[in-house]
Structures are given as C-alpha cells and as structure tokens.
TrEMBL record:
InterPro entries: Bact_Sigma-Reg (IPR052016), GAF-like_dom_sf (IPR029016), HATPase_C_sf (IPR036890), HATPase_dom (IPR003594), PPM-type-like_dom_sf (IPR036457), PPM-type_phosphatase-like_dom (IPR001932)
GO molecular function: ATP binding
Keyword Hydrolase: yes
Domain PPM-type phosphatase: start-end pairs: 360-589
Native organism taxonomy: Bacteria, Bacillati, Actinomycetota, Actinomycetes, Kitasatosporales
Sorted UniProt keywords: ATP-binding, Hydrolase, Nucleotide-binding
Name listed for the protein in its UniProt record: ATP-binding SpoIIE family protein phosphatase
C-alpha cells in the first residue's frame, strides 16, 4: 500500500478470505466491525466515522470482493485502514491474479457496478498491479460526511436510496425535459438501469423510495408515490422534491387530496399543488396508476415546474417507469406474503420456550442452514412430564427443504403426545417409527417413486433430578443419531448410549434405552451431524474424537458457555460456510436452588 497517501497515524486491520460465494458477506462484516468497533473512537477521538461513511465502505467492499470472486477466483485479502490525517478510511481488496482485468466503464452493466460506485462515492480510488497480486483500493473522507449537495438524507428506508441516484444515468442540464433530446437519446439506457434497480428490491417501501430518486430531477421536479392498503385505500408512502426543504409542505398538500381509482395508464393531468413552487410559477403534473398482475397497487404522481404540460416523450418514459414500479411493488408484496406465511408455519415447528428443570442447567444452539429460514431439518424440544420428570429430544430429518420441515413438526408434536400419554422412551421411538413408515408409504402411493420417504435420526430421553444427591437420573435412546457425550467433573469424556436404526426405515425395528445418573457437575452434550460432520477438506470435526477433545476443554463452564464453544468450534473448523443445519443441546447437573419458605402470619 506504499502507493497510497502518506499517513501520520493510522490503524490497520486485515483479513484473508477464500474466493467463494461467502466472501462478500464476510468482507462486509469485517469492514463494518472495523469501522464501528472500539478501535475507531480510540483513534479518531471526537470525530467518529458516521453511519453514511460506514455504509458506503460496506457497499464498495462488497462490490469489489464480488468482482474478485467472479473474475479472479483466488484467495482475497481485505485491508481496512483508519486514518487521522486527514480523517477517513482506506480499504484495499487484493487477489492473487495480477493479470485479471478490473471491469468498469461501458462494460459495467454486464460486469457489475463496483468502479461506477467508487467513482460516485469515493474521494479517491485506484488499481495497483504487483508481480504476484492485484489491488483495488478506495478512500472515503470523513470530512465530507453530511456536507454539501452530495449529502442525501438516509432514513430507515435504507442507504440504497442514495445509491440509486449514483447509479441511474442523470440527464445533462442542457437536455432537461422540454427539448426532448435527452428522453430520446438517454431514455432507453435510463429505463434499463431503472428496471435493474427496481427488480432487486423485495420491500415495497424501498421501491417507492427508489422511484422518487430515479425520477427526480431527471424527469420531474417532484414525485409522490401512494401505495394501496388491504382495504384498497391509498397511503402516501413517499414524497420527494428536488428542493428537500419543500418535502414536508408538499406532503401536507398531497395528503389532503389523494388520487382516485380508475386513472388512465398513459397519465392523467393532475392539479398543480402550490407548495411545490415558492415562486408561484406553476407547472404540469401527471398521475399514473400502478397496475400489475390485474390489480392496482397505488399511484405515481410527478410534476415539472415552469411548463404547461410534459412532452409526449417524457410522459411516455414516465409511464414506462410507473409500470416497472408497479411490477416491483407487486413482486415485493408477493414475497412479503410468502415470507409471512413461511415464518408463521416455521414458528410451529419449534417450541416457543424451553422448560426449566430444577437442578439442571440447559442451553440450546440452533442454526438452520437455509437462507431466510428459521427452521430446517434439525429440531429440538424440552418439556415437562409431571412428577419431577422432563423429556428432551434432538432430531434431524433427511433434507432441509419444506418437506423436511413438515416432518420435524409431525415428529416433535407426536413425541410430546406419546410421552404425556405415559409411553416410555422405547415405546415412544417404536410408535414414532411406525408413524414415519406409514407416512412414507402413503407418500410413495400418492406421488410415485419420486416421492421418497423421509428418514429421521432422533436422540430422545427422560430426566428425573434427585434433590437428595443433586444428580439427575437419565434414560435415553439414539435412533441413528450421533451419540451424546458425558463430561465428568474431573474432565474425562465418555460416550453414552448405543447406535440403533434410523426411524422410518423398518416398521418392525425394536429400540432399547440406556440409563445412567448425570452426577452433580457433569455435562451431557447432544449435537446433530451438522457439528460432527463439519468438514475441512477431507477431514470431519469428529474425526479422531475431535468433538470429545473440544468438550474436554469445557470443564467448569456453564451449559451456555459449553454450547457456544461447540458452536464456535464448528464454525472455525473449516474456511467454508457450514452447509448443514446445526443444533447443540447441553444439559448440566447443578445444585438445586432452595425453595424459600413463607412463614404464616401470627
């Protein structure tokens, strides 16, 4: 980095990332932690880096690392330098392919927007070719934070509103609407960029915010977006004026006169709201319905000051944008509905809370693998049975798709029902096995051979704490599940239970349970194969009793600390992200808290 600015004082952080799809997310987390961690205030003193600079740095490093993954495919080094003279941050992304090109310019749409964004957001940037590597760097100046015309407001809608303005092609001042030149020459390119930006949004409020940024000031001096509600009423979602000081007055004027339904898709002339123009010069406004998939999703209203009407080309281009906004809103709403349904269904697959067991400290770690999922193929439960007995389970369904999630719900609720009807450990496994075999046979009968049955591994047990000894009597059985490990107070680790057949394979399978006492101070560790089969190259975490070695180092730790150490060890074992669900259940026998005795009043 000798080619960068000479510094009198700086703090340097660096990390190496694999050239995989997980690298951009890791780079974003690294830069955000560096810029918002305790080191930044310690170095910069009373001039901390603002939220906007942090978000810009995170966006730019994400684009550069993505470009490196796509076009170099080597390991990537990310260096983040906090500087005091002048205050700011320099981020450098290096790959080990010095011959690969850095894409930008006319090829931006096909290759990405990293260099285009750097040109819009960075104070300075450059590319340095070394003999064995190539480095792309940028500098963001903290002194520019929130200053000048470049400082656009960032609210809860998100920083992407500013990036829309940086990315969308701006109309040169001499080609403003009226001459029609820019609409004819730059309109198609502008429309393509607008489509690209809107298509990537899955939040309707963000779509409305982007619409305002795209249209103002290129096609209009101000813009407003109404979105329809469930009762087909309209709410004014977003107002944007080229003079931001007039936003509030414009909103007040528009809120009192919402547009009607049944507007002409080609644009309906709209009365000019006076607060939009302090000079009273007036102008022209057009309202476009947001129609997509056979229904109305709202209204887009835009206005241009100083003209009696918008040109035919500008109106046509505005209508094209309105159709794309409508499609983006419809897509975002469909995604939101599906996500809401999915979350509601997933919430029923796992317990809302874990039972408290007197004399036993418990902890659970649960990380589903699927993106945007709260439930995967792994599941757990811990519930009371009455009579000082509690039941626990940890299971894993073959697969991580919605079908696997449906089996987790069936298994967990059926186990609870059987246990509360008085069935012991062996009986619960036998009856659950029969239910899964029947379910699989019905699926094949209905869906044919492609509807393969779902197999299930399950660790199920009962706990009965003994107040006299402080131990907890445990009865458990493992059906094709990784066997639990017991850590003694002296630090030795023993495997508990015996391997038995998976559930759902053979209706006639028989299961037996093992019993032991979990002595005071002892810990029982239960995991799914997302932990034991965590890979690093050709090795797995549990090769050569790797999990036992991890547990052996947990003597004296609480149940929560043990669970966290195992989770961290699984993540740190290999450079690649974990590609399976991960679940850890820890039970530790601890002294019972004495129950306070209430004295009767005299």
């Amino acid at each position: 980095m000798g080619a960068l600015l000479p510094l009198s004082r700086e703090s340097v952080s660096r990390t190496m990332l694999p050239g995989t799809v997980g690298a951009p997310a890791a780079a974003r987390a690294f830069v955000r932690t560096t810029l918002t961690g305790p080191g930044a205030p310690a170095l910069l003193g009373p001039r901390p880096l603002g939220d906007r600079l942090t978000e810009d740095a995170v966006l730019l490093v994400s684009e550069l690392v993505t470009n490196a993954v796509l076009h170099a495919g080597t390991e990537i080094e990310v260096v983040c330098r906090l500087q005091t003279t002048p205050p700011g941050v320099v981020v450098e992304v290096s790959d080990l392919h010095p011959a690969s090109a850095v894409y930008g310019g006319q090829d931006t749409r096909r290759r990405g927007r990293g260099l285009q964004l750097m040109g819009a957001l960075a104070e300075s940037w450059g590319v340095t070719y070394h003999r064995t590597r190539k480095a792309v760097w940028f500098r963001l100046d903290a002194a520019r934070e929130g200053s000048g015309a470049d400082a656009l407001s960032v609210d809860a809608v998100g920083s992407e509103v500013r990036f829309a303005k940086a990315l969308a092609p701006a109309a040169p001042p001499r080609h403003r609407e009226g001459s029609g030149g820019w609409v004819d020459r730059g309109g198609p390119s502008f429309l393509a960029e607008a489509s690209d930006l809107l298509a990537g949004q899955l939040d309707e409020n963000m779509v409305a915010a982007l619409a305002g940024q795209l249209l103002v000031p290129r096609l209009a001096d101000w813009c407003a977006v109404w979105l329809s509600t469930e009762g087909q009423r309209l709410r004014l979602c977003r107002v944007w004026h080229s003079d931001e000081r007039r936003n509030d007055a414009l909103r007040l004027a528009l809120e009192s006169h919402p547009p009607p339904t049944g507007l002409d898709p080609s644009g309906t002339p709209w009365p000019w709201p006076e607060p939009t123009d302090g000079r009273g010069a007036g102008g022209a406004a057009l309202a476009f319905p947001l129609l997509a998939q056979g229904r109305s999703h709202g209204v887009l209203l835009l206005g241009r000051a100083g003209v009696t009407q918008l040109s035919e080309g500008a109106a046509r281009l505005s209508g094209d944008v309105a159709r794309r906004v409508a499609q983006a809103v419809a897509t975002a709403r469909r995604y939101t509905r599906q996500a809401t349904i999915s979350r509601a269904l997933q919430r029923r697959q796992l317990p809302t809370s874990l039972a408290h067991i007197p004399g036993v400290d418990t902890a659970i770690v649960y990380e589903p693998h699927g993106e945007e999922q709260t439930v995967g193929g792994d599941f757990y439960d811990l519930f009371p049975m009455g009579g000082r007995r509690w039941c626990f389970l940890l299971g894993d369904v073959c697969g991580s798709d919605p079908e696997a999630m449906s089996v987790t719900g069936l298994a967990r609720h059926l186990v609870r029902l059987l246990a509360r009807e008085g069935h012991g450990v062996e009986s619960v496994l036998s009856r659950l096995n029969q239910a899964l075999v029947e379910e699989g046979a019905e699926a094949v009968a209905v869906g044919g051979e492609q509807a393969r049955p779902r197999f299930l591994s399950l660790l199920y047990g009962e706990l009965e704490p003994d107040p006299a000894t402080g131990a907890a009597h445990c009865t458990l059985a493992s059906a094709g599940h990784p066997l639990p490990l017991r850590l003694t107070a002296e630090g030795s680790v023993v495997t508990t239970g015996s391997n038995q057949m998976l559930l759902g394979i053979d209706e006639s399978a028989e299961f037996h349970a093992d019993s032991f006492d979990l002595a005071l101070g002892e810990t029982l560790l239960c995991v799914t194969d997302g932990v034991t089969e965590r890979r690093s190259g050709n090795r797995q975490l549990d090769d050569d009793d790797g999990l036992a070695d991890i547990l052996r180092g947990c003597v004296g730790l609480s149940a929560k600390a043990v669970a966290e150490r195992v989770r961290r060890a699984a993540h740190d074992f290999g450079p690649e992200p974990i590609d399976d669900d991960l679940a850890v259940l820890v039970l530790e026998a601890v002294p019972m808290r004495p129950v306070p005795v209430r004295m009767a009043p005299l």
